[in-house]
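residues and backbone:
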Amino acid sequence: MANMEREKKLLQQSVAIVAALPVATGLYGVLFGQALTGDAVSISAESHFRFMSGLLLGIGLCFWSTLPSIEIRTGRFRLLTLLVVIGGLSRLIGLVLTGLPSFFMVGGLFIELVVAPVLCLWQTRIANRYADAYGVAER
């Protein structure tokens, strides 16, 4: 049981760290808009950028909301992971259609299509182990 608790704690720490990226970048985008790129854009494009940044912030916060009881938050975790993967696939389509983006965008793609699914599989493993040990059902 101590090993299971240790693995759960490691998962919680990993998710907390990884989710800090969308929280920080989303908040920055909401507050400063396209200032990060230095590009002049239309008011509508600026509005859309801030909206998308708000979604990114929200996804990160929702991942953080799974932390206290991560072993029973499988449904929420999977839904959030699905949203992230859909975003990553969209970014991948953009890469194919328009070319290689910046290093940071490629890093985001890696997190969206590799790291998030791995964390989701890990969360499922933890949830299954807890359900076997304690009979905990998903909420």
